[in-house]
C-alpha cells in the first residue's frame, strides 16, 4: 500500500454525496469517526457502506425461492448451530423473518468442522466444534446460484507470504541503518473478532439472504460466511486499516511494518519501538470500534504489546531472531498422523 500511494496509484471509489442520504444501519464500527480520520480516503464509498450497509451485487429475479430442508447435521451440530443462531439473534446480526418480507429467497445451511481435530472427531462420530455456513453456491429450485449471480470480480492475488517476508526484511534493513541489532526484531498479531460479521449488508438485499434454523425463519443482516461478496467486501477493511497506519502514524519513522491477511493484523518492529507501534494499532481498533479477539491476543502474544521473537503467521512459525520460518511442531505432528 505504501508503494502504491507513493506511486500515485489508488483503488476503490471516492466518497459519493448521494450515499450520505441513505439511512444508517445498526453497525458495529464507528463510521463517522472513520470518516473524520480518513476524509480523503480513495475508497470512501466503503466507509459510507459501513454506515448504511454494503450492496451484495445480486442479479436475481425478485421471486420467492424456498428450500425443502437444510443439509443433514448430527444432533451435536444442530445444538451448536442453534446456540450460534441465538447468539447472533441477540447481537442483531440476524433477524427473524416476518410478513414485511413478502418476497424472500432461502439458502440451505450446514455445519462444517472448525479445525482438523474437529473433522477427525466428526469422522469418529464424536462431538465436535463447527462453523455454520449458508451454501450460497448451491442452486435453488429456480436453478440459480447466488454466488454465480453476484456479478464479476477480479481474481484474488494474495502473495501474503512474500509480503510478510518483505516486511520483515525491511525492518531488518532499518535496524542496520539505525545501528540497532536486528536480533531485536519482535512481532505481534491482532485478530479482528467475527470478521465478516462486523460489517452490515444493505437492507435492500435482506430478502435474498434468508435461511432456516430449526423452527426459525430468519435472514442475515451482517455479511454471512459462504457468500462470495462477503470476502471482497471485507477485504476493503484491511486496506483501510493499513492505509491509516501507513499515512496517519509514525510507523515509517519507527521502521515498523504492518501486514494483514483477512482478519489477522501482523506488526513487526524493533524491540525499541514495537510497543509504541502496537499501542497505536490497538488505539485505532478502540477508536474505530473494531472488535478484536482479546483471548486470542493473549495466547498469540504472551508478552503483550512488547512483542515476541517468534510468531505464527499464515500457519507458519517465524523466528525473527534467526530470520527463519518453518512448520509449527503441533502441525508437523498432525501431518505425520494424517
Give the strand order of the largest sheet, numbering strands 1, 2, ... along the chain: 1-6-5
Structural class: alpha+beta
Low-confidence stretches: none
Order of helices and strands: HHHHEEHEHEEEHHHEEHHEEEH
Mean pLDDT: 92
N- to C-terminal distance: 39 Å
Strand content: 15-25%
What is the molecular shape? globular
Helix content: 25-40%
Please tally the β strands and state the result: 11
Determine the number of helices (DSSP H or I, runs of at least 4 residues): 12
Radius of gyration: 22 Å
The major pleated sheet works out as: 3 strands, antiparallel
In short:
The chain is α+β, with helices and mostly antiparallel strands and 338 residues long. It has helices at 2-6, 31-37, 44-52, 75-90, 116-123, 160-177, 228-234, 236-247, 251-254, 274-288, 294-300, 329-337; strands at residues 94-96, 109-113, 130-134, 185-191, 210-213, 216-220, 257-261, 264-270, 310-313, 316-319, 324-326.
Please describe what this structure looks like:
- There is one protein chain.
- By secondary structure, the chain is of the alpha+beta class.
- It is 35% helix and 15% strand.
- It is built from twelve helices and eleven strands.
- The chain has helices spanning 2-6, 31-37, 44-52, 75-90, 116-123, 160-177, 228-234, 236-247, 251-254, 274-288, 294-300, 329-337; strands at 94-96, 109-113, 130-134, 185-191, 210-213, 216-220, 257-261, 264-270, 310-313, 316-319, 324-326.
- A three-stranded antiparallel beta sheet has the order 1-6-5, with helices on one face.
- Strand 7 (257-261) and strand 8 form a beta hairpin.
- Helix 2 runs antiparallel to helix 3 (44-52).
Amino acid at each position: 500500500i505504501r508503494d502504491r500511494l507513493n506511486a500515485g496509484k489508488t483503488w476503490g471509489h471516492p466518497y459519493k454525496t448521494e450515499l450520505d442520504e441513505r439511512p444508517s444501519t445498526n453497525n458495529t464500527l464507528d463510521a463517522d469517526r472513520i470518516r473524520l480520520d480518513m476524509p480523503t480516503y480513495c475508497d470512501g464509498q466503503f466507509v459510507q457502506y459501513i454506515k448504511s450497509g454494503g450492496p451484495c451485487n445480486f442479479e436475481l429475479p425478485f421471486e420467492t425461492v424456498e428450500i425443502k430442508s437444510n443439509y443433514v447435521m448430527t444432533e451435536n451440530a444442530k445444538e451448536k448451530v442453534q446456540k450460534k443462531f441465538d447468539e447472533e439473534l441477540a447481537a442483531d446480526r440476524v433477524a427473524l423473518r416476518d410478513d414485511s418480507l413478502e418476497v424472500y429467497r432461502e439458502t440451505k445451511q450446514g455445519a462444517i468442522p472448525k479445525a482438523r481435530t474437529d473433522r477427525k472427531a466428526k469422522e469418529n462420530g464424536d462431538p465436535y466444534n463447527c462453523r455454520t455456513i449458508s451454501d450460497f453456491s448451491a442452486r435453488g429450485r429456480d436453478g440459480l446460484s447466488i454466488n454465480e449471480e453476484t456479478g464479476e470480480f477480479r481474481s484474488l492475488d494474495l502473495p501474503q507470504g512474500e509480503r510478510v517476508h518483505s516486511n520483515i526484511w525491511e525492518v531488518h534493513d532499518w535496524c542496520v541503518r539505525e545501528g540497532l541489532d536486528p536480533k531485536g526484531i519482535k512481532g505481534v498479531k491482532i485478530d479482528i473478532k467475527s470478521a465478516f460479521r462486523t460489517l452490515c449488508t444493505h437492507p435492500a438485499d435482506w430478502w435474498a439472504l434468508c435461511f432456516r434454523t430449526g423452527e426459525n425463519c430468519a435472514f442475515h443482516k451482517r455479511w454471512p460466511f459462504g457468500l462470495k461478496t462477503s470476502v471482497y467486501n471485507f477485504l476493503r477493511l484491511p486496506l483501510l486499516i493499513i492505509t491509516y497506519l501507513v499515512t496517519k502514524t509514525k510507523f515509517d519513522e519507527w521502521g515498523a511494518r504492518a501486514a494483514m491477511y483477512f482478519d489477522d493484523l501482523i506488526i513487526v518492529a524493533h524491540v525499541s519501538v514495537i510497543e509504541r507501534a502496537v499501542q497505536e494499532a490497538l488505539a485505532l481498533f478502540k477508536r474505530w470500534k473494531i472488535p478484536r479477539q482479546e483471548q486470542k491476543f493473549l495466547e498469540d502474544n504472551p508478552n503483550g504489546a512488547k512483542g515476541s521473537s517468534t510468531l505464527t503467521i499464515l500457519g507458519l512459525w517465524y523466528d525473527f531472531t534467526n530470520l527463519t520460518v518453518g512448520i509449527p511442531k503441533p502441525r508437523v505432528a498432525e501431518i505425520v498422523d494424517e
